[in-house]
Amino acid sequence: MRKLSILMLGVAMGAGVSTLATQGRLLSTSSAVAAASDTYRQLNLFGDVFEKIRSDYVEKPDESKLIESAINGMLSGLDPHSSYMDPKSFRDMQVQTRGEFGGLGIEVTMEEGVIKVVTPIDDTPASRAGVLAGDSITHIDDEPVQGLTLNQAVEKMRGAVNSTVKLKIVRKGSTDPVEVKLTRDVIRIRSVRSRSESDVGYIRITQFNEQTFENLKKAFDQIGKDIPADKLKGYVLDLRNNPGGLLDQAIAVSDAFLERGEIVSTRGRNADETQRYSARAGDLSKGKPVVVLVNGGSASASEIVAGALQDHKRATIVGTRSFGKGSVQTIIPLGGNGAIRLTTARYYTPSGRSIQAKGIDPDLQVVNEVPPELKGKDETKGEAALKGHLKNGDDEQGGSSAYVPPDPANDKQLNFAYDLLRGVKVNDAQGKAPDQQGQTKAPATAPN
Length: 448
Hints:
By secondary structure, this protein is an alpha+beta fold. The protein has helices at about 1-55, 65-75, 85-100, 125-130, 150-155, 210-225, 245-255, 300-310, 410-420, and strands at about 85, 100-105, 105-110, 115-120, 135-140, 145, 165-170, 180-185, 185-190, 190-195, 200-205, 235-240, 260-265, 275-280, 290-295, 315-320, 325-335, 340-350, 365, 435, 440, 445.
């Protein structure tokens, strides 16, 4: 009888489990319905607020602006890098990533309300017309630039290829303004600059746009012509103050220095969204030693390159800790209504490190001397200081110095890299190097 009681208890328990499982499914379905109902209530609340603003605000509001602000608020509330782009912003972003546009070929800045030419780009309408570095542009198509923002002035100088624009220029040493009429042409942003420094190839990447890898190959070719292979000590890859750009270009640049192995992985919300990107055979640098320069302004795609080369021990990383932006944004067009930039994944270096809010620590920390007037203004706060950033544990890091001296002779990070490649400085087993005072320290513009 006791055995029967136990058996019956077991059956009862089994029945109880079955009933609970069924109830669990019912509860799950019920919860989903409740959640959906709550979401619809919130959407109704949004509609109520929108109607109140339309009918009762002190002035008639622009309804499209209200919707844009609501969408942007929704996205910016997620993290610092998700946002809404109206059609114009979307077009500007496409120009930036494409790396070419209709314009004049001058890099400009703004000083005291006047547009000042930083440099004309070679073989462009501006350089052919004799525009010089240091020229001040006071009028565009007879309209004064005084009162315009830099972006507004740049927008006026850009335009359709073969269209014309007139500039009034004030040149230092000349009393009379100069007027030049220019025909816009296709301008390509130089994201890669290179030069040969005796026995070392110097390559600087300012951003990762659609032209970057092709321009990198040209840089390798030119350095190869300037320096015989038996004389070439190696390459300096300068990624300082590079804010990032296209993921595929960061992968291609990393691949240029690697023969094999993973470059980066991206991981989304679900496990099946993980993607891994690996190098293909063919090292464009032909195995020569590489030193990568980073600082507090090196972010995103530039951190992918530095992290991949560091993990594979293909390069020595020199400088200061990078920015720490370890997330991937996907651009999702909205028909003719602009686009959204949405954070869809985090990226990880080959060893599985997440750089998010931590950055890349250099193998050898070298800090440039900062002029007294810039001290305290030279450091980036880093991703970890951005409000609403994606969290990454308890050991998040702040920013670091992002100062690069305008004169290469005073650039201690760059000259340290040259010395390292030439064997004047040694990357010892402890990973220590002299800092800018010679002490031992443990590693730690608008074109148009």
